[in-house]
Specification:
Layout lengths: L3 E7 L2 H12 L2 E7 L4 E8 L2 E7 H7 L11 E4 L2 H10 L8 E3 L2 E7 L5 E6 L3
Parallel strand pairs: 1-4, 5-8
Antiparallel strand pairs: 2-3, 3-4, 6-7, 7-8
Length: about 120
Protein backbone atom coordinates (compact mmCIF):
# COMPACT_ATOMS: atom_id res chain seq x y z
CA UNK A 1 0.00 0.00 0.00
CA UNK A 2 1.19 3.52 -0.76
CA UNK A 3 0.42 6.40 1.56
CA UNK A 4 0.45 10.00 0.36
CA UNK A 5 1.86 12.39 2.94
CA UNK A 6 0.99 16.00 2.21
CA UNK A 7 3.36 18.34 4.04
CA UNK A 8 2.00 21.63 5.34
CA UNK A 9 4.36 24.29 6.71
CA UNK A 10 2.67 26.25 9.49
CA UNK A 11 3.45 28.83 12.17
CA UNK A 12 1.92 26.83 15.05
CA UNK A 13 1.90 23.05 14.63
CA UNK A 14 -0.27 22.31 17.70
CA UNK A 15 -2.92 24.94 16.90
CA UNK A 16 -3.18 23.80 13.28
CA UNK A 17 -3.36 20.12 14.32
CA UNK A 18 -6.20 20.98 16.73
CA UNK A 19 -8.00 22.85 13.93
CA UNK A 20 -7.87 19.87 11.53
CA UNK A 21 -8.91 17.45 14.29
CA UNK A 22 -11.84 19.65 15.34
CA UNK A 23 -13.32 20.39 11.94
CA UNK A 24 -12.41 17.48 9.67
CA UNK A 25 -12.04 14.80 12.37
CA UNK A 26 -8.49 13.94 11.26
CA UNK A 27 -6.76 11.67 13.78
CA UNK A 28 -3.24 12.16 15.07
CA UNK A 29 -1.24 9.07 14.08
CA UNK A 30 2.33 10.16 14.73
CA UNK A 31 4.40 12.91 16.29
CA UNK A 32 8.06 13.70 15.74
CA UNK A 33 10.26 15.70 18.11
CA UNK A 34 13.18 17.43 16.41
CA UNK A 35 14.43 19.07 19.60
CA UNK A 36 13.58 22.67 18.73
CA UNK A 37 10.48 21.73 16.74
CA UNK A 38 7.77 19.10 16.37
CA UNK A 39 5.87 17.60 13.47
CA UNK A 40 2.41 16.06 13.77
CA UNK A 41 0.98 13.54 11.32
CA UNK A 42 -2.81 13.49 10.90
CA UNK A 43 -4.62 10.69 9.08
CA UNK A 44 -7.02 11.96 6.42
CA UNK A 45 -7.90 8.40 5.41
CA UNK A 46 -6.00 5.07 5.33
CA UNK A 47 -3.85 6.15 2.38
CA UNK A 48 -3.42 9.91 2.94
CA UNK A 49 -1.92 11.97 5.77
CA UNK A 50 -1.30 15.63 6.47
CA UNK A 51 2.08 16.15 8.11
CA UNK A 52 2.40 19.52 9.80
CA UNK A 53 5.86 21.06 10.12
CA UNK A 54 6.92 24.26 11.84
CA UNK A 55 7.73 26.69 9.03
CA UNK A 56 10.79 28.04 10.88
CA UNK A 57 12.19 24.50 11.02
CA UNK A 58 11.63 24.16 7.26
CA UNK A 59 13.18 27.58 6.56
CA UNK A 60 16.27 26.48 8.50
CA UNK A 61 16.58 22.96 7.06
CA UNK A 62 14.97 23.15 3.59
CA UNK A 63 14.68 26.83 2.66
CA UNK A 64 14.07 25.99 -1.01
CA UNK A 65 10.61 24.56 -0.20
CA UNK A 66 9.55 26.84 2.66
CA UNK A 67 7.32 29.01 0.46
CA UNK A 68 5.52 26.09 -1.25
CA UNK A 69 1.82 26.14 -0.46
CA UNK A 70 -0.50 23.40 -1.67
CA UNK A 71 -3.99 23.98 -2.92
CA UNK A 72 -6.10 21.27 -1.33
CA UNK A 73 -9.69 20.30 -2.11
CA UNK A 74 -11.48 17.98 0.33
CA UNK A 75 -14.50 15.92 -0.78
CA UNK A 76 -16.88 15.86 2.20
CA UNK A 77 -20.07 13.82 2.59
CA UNK A 78 -21.31 15.81 5.65
CA UNK A 79 -20.97 19.08 3.75
CA UNK A 80 -23.78 20.95 5.55
CA UNK A 81 -22.63 19.69 8.95
CA UNK A 82 -19.08 20.93 8.39
CA UNK A 83 -20.29 24.31 7.15
CA UNK A 84 -22.57 24.62 10.19
CA UNK A 85 -19.67 23.79 12.58
CA UNK A 86 -17.55 26.55 11.08
CA UNK A 87 -20.43 29.05 11.36
CA UNK A 88 -21.37 27.98 14.93
CA UNK A 89 -17.77 28.59 16.04
CA UNK A 90 -17.57 31.99 14.31
CA UNK A 91 -14.84 30.76 11.97
CA UNK A 92 -14.12 32.53 8.70
CA UNK A 93 -15.78 30.58 5.91
CA UNK A 94 -16.65 31.42 2.33
CA UNK A 95 -20.14 31.39 0.92
CA UNK A 96 -21.48 28.14 -0.50
CA UNK A 97 -21.36 28.27 -4.28
CA UNK A 98 -22.24 25.87 -7.08
CA UNK A 99 -19.24 24.91 -9.19
CA UNK A 100 -19.11 22.13 -11.76
CA UNK A 101 -22.36 20.62 -10.54
CA UNK A 102 -21.29 20.45 -6.88
CA UNK A 103 -21.62 22.79 -3.92
CA UNK A 104 -18.33 24.15 -2.59
CA UNK A 105 -16.95 26.59 -0.03
CA UNK A 106 -13.54 27.58 1.24
CA UNK A 107 -12.01 28.24 4.66
CA UNK A 108 -8.66 29.32 6.13
CA UNK A 109 -6.59 27.41 8.65
CA UNK A 110 -4.97 29.04 11.68
CA UNK A 111 -2.23 30.53 9.46
CA UNK A 112 -4.68 32.02 6.95
CA UNK A 113 -4.04 29.42 4.22
CA UNK A 114 -7.24 28.72 2.29
CA UNK A 115 -8.62 25.26 1.48
CA UNK A 116 -11.69 24.19 -0.47
CA UNK A 117 -14.47 21.74 0.34
CA UNK A 118 -16.70 20.03 -2.22
CA UNK A 119 -19.91 18.16 -1.42
CA UNK A 120 -19.92 14.50 -2.33
CA UNK A 121 -22.52 11.75 -2.02
CA UNK A 122 -21.99 9.28 0.81
Amino acid sequence: MTTANIMLYVEDVEANADFWKQYLDFKEVDRFDFGDSISIVLAVNPTCNLQLFDIDFIRKNSPEVASNKPSLLFDISDFDGLYARFKENNETVGEIIEMGGARTFNFPDRDGNYYAVRETAE
